[in-house]
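Protein Record: Sequence and Backbone Structure Tokens
======================================================
Tokens: labelled as protein backbone structure tokens, with as many entries as the chain has residues.
Task: work out the structure tokens from the sequence, keeping to the layout shown below.
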Amino acid sequence: MEQFVAINNETYYWSQPKALERFFELRTPAAELAGLLVWEKAFGTLATAYTAAGHWSFKRVGFWNPRITVRKPGEDNDLAVFYPRFFGNGTLEIVGGDQFRWESLNFWATHWGFFNPSDDQVLVKFIPGSDQGTLGDVFKNQAIIQIDLQRRVSDLPLLISLGWYLMILRLDDSAASVTATTAAIG
């Protein structure tokens, strides 16, 4: 496996190398590998993120009180917890540390970002698509990541990884609801 480059640019790209695999690469504009997000099973919500700054496991848990836990892989202690709210917004609470708001950046809820609550500014944006889309990318999940380097925080690699995880979960949930609606109508 390639070594990861540190996250220190303004722009990155999440891409899905193979349309039917739940495996994603975070790359720089020069195509250097900066991170990975890998689902442990074809179905389920357990995924592991890898960057030069560390690695984390993400898992959606709870039915009445849903949340997403952030842990070191194989450990039981939460490093952070994401608490979703209505319409996909939510709050990431780092244990013993900062909080970050996750909110939609546009009316259609296609662009998302993590906000720094202290100055209410977007730290990192997630915009679907790529700068070099090809016909082969039609069925792949991709996003352009824009980082405000003036407001850089130490948890940035975690925010970039968790944000993409949240976007993929949202896409999965949307596809499941369309399938259920179609089955109910048909």
